[in-house]
Amino acid sequence: MAARQEQIDLLVDAAQEGDIDAFTHVLLANEEVIDGKDEERGATALMAAAHNGHIDIVQLLLEHNAVVDLQTNDGYTALMAAAQEGHIAVVQLLLEHHADIAPKTTDGRTALMVAVKNDKLGAARVLMEHKALLLSDDAALAEYSTKYSEYPP
């Protein structure tokens, strides 16, 4: 069990750092740990890569059938991680691979709410185009319309 967790941690760390060579080496040697979670946050390699905008690693994980909608200990998904940091291309890629826009964090935030809270307009716009706005509560709608009422269509 410890060896498996060590491989998961190596995979997540390489994804977080964007080290494609180390990542590929660990993934190909241990593909069964692709959806493993690190012990600290419960993050997967997909979440770590999405959070840091490493689209090449995100793409590789998706090609190897990583589960898109797993959640961390506090409910974050890879989509939320990418939206939080404003990585628009990663958000789009995850949505193209059917990332669910409905999950909420333990404090009740959707990916759209996370993007708005962090002033990531581009990510919020992409999520809205995918109907995420319909899944958010009135507070998120009010916050969005207040922050971005001047934004052109």
Description:
- There is one protein chain.
- This protein has 153 residues and is mainly alpha-helical.
- Helix content is 56%, strand content 0%.
- It has nine helices and no strands.
- It has helices at residues 2-17, 20-29, 45-51, 55-63, 78-85, 88-96, 111-117, 121-129, 138-148.
- Helix 3 runs parallel beside helix 5, helix 6 packs parallel to helix 8 and helix 7 runs antiparallel to helix 8.
- The radius of gyration is 16 Å and the shape is globular.
- The mean pLDDT is 87.
Largest sheet: none
Helical run tally: 9
How would you classify the helix and strand content by structural class?
mainly alpha
Q: What is the molecular shape?
A: globular
The radius of gyration computed from the alpha-carbon positions, rounded to a whole number of angstroms, is 16 Å
Number of strands: 0
Order of helices and strands: HHHHHHHHH
What is the terminal-to-terminal distance?
A: 52 Å
Q: Give the helix level as a range of percent.
A: 55-70%
- Average pLDDT, all residues: 87
Low-confidence stretches: none
Task: Tell me the strand percentage band.
Answer: under 5%
In short:
This protein is an all-alpha fold and 153 residues long. The chain contains nine helices and no strands.
